[in-house]
Design brief:
The chain is α/β, with parallel strands linked by helices. The protein has seven helices and eleven strands. The protein is elongated.
Length: 247
């Protein structure tokens, strides 16, 4: 059975003894019911992980770190999911599953037809919540790096920003002539970065389609079925990983 894994935003070193942050200690002791001497795994998000043994003194939990393990579970290429904000709390599910299938970053987009509208303190709290979801997903799935979750921007802001060489942009369009598998079969050497743009429940607006074409975005469809917005990104990343030999 895999050992419990915890992300700690601290500098980790082999042989160190450190006090676990309150949130980590609460999860370990109150939620998972771990006890003195139990083995866990800690990672700081910079790559690799450490074996550790719990020490409990009153209400405080400590970890005695063991050896460094350089294990990684990242995709060979960088995938960024640019997800138009869905309704309700669906973005939680999007972030969680995108992290599990290997997304390096999730960029929320405030699309023209996005139902969810956020601003001010409510926006800041929601972004911090999504980042905590990404951390929890990394703990669960075995990744030792934390996917970045950005603050929402408009599709225009996202498309007009500079991109690095070797970046390919794909937009999920159920009416596109080109299938995702056809694109992947003809890509040759896989790009270093793939940006996947997924629209909201109401789809992209005509202006957003035009803007995407102006910036060289390739329109692709997953297949003959229309996927829900919260499903599309995970399905596309999984299919791309399989077709490009990244799994």
């Amino acid at each position: 059975m895999p050992l419990p894994r915890f992300h700690v935003d601290l500098s980790l070193q082999p042989g160190a003894r450190l006090a676990l942050p309150d949130s980590v200690a609460h999860h370990a002791l109150r939620v998972l019911r771990l006890r003195e001497g139990d083995e866990v795994v800690l990672f700081d998000g910079r790559g690799g992980q450490y074996s550790a043994r719990l020490e409990i003194q009153g209400k405080q939990a400590y970890a005695q770190l063991g050896a460094y393990d350089p294990r990684e579970a990242e995709l060979p290429g960088r995938v960024i999911l640019a997800q138009a904000l869905p309704s309700g709390d669906k973005m939680d599910w999007v972030v969680e599953k995108a992290v599990e299938v290997g997304a390096a970053a999730i960029q929320p987009l405030a699309a023209a037809r996005s139902v969810l509208r956020l601003s001010g303190e409510r926006l800041e709290k929601r972004v911090q919540h999504w980042r905590r979801v990404a951390i929890a997903a990394s703990e669960q799935c075995g990744r030792n790096r934390i996917a970045d979750v950005g603050a929402p921007v408009t599709p225009q802001q996202w498309l007009e920003r500079p991109v690095e060489d070797g970046t390919v942009r794909l937009l999920c369009d159920p009416d596109a002539e080109l299938r995702l598998t056809e694109w992947a079969a003809g890509v040759g050497t896989p790009p270093t970065t793939i940006e996947l743009l997924v629209g909201p429940e109401g789809g992209w607006s005509n202006k957003e389609y035009a803007l995407a074409r102006e910036h060289g975005v390739c329109m692709v469809r997953f297949g003959d079925r229309i996927l829900r917005t919260e499903t599309a990104g995970t399905a596309l990343i999984s299919a791309l990983s399989a077709k490009l030999g990244w799994v």
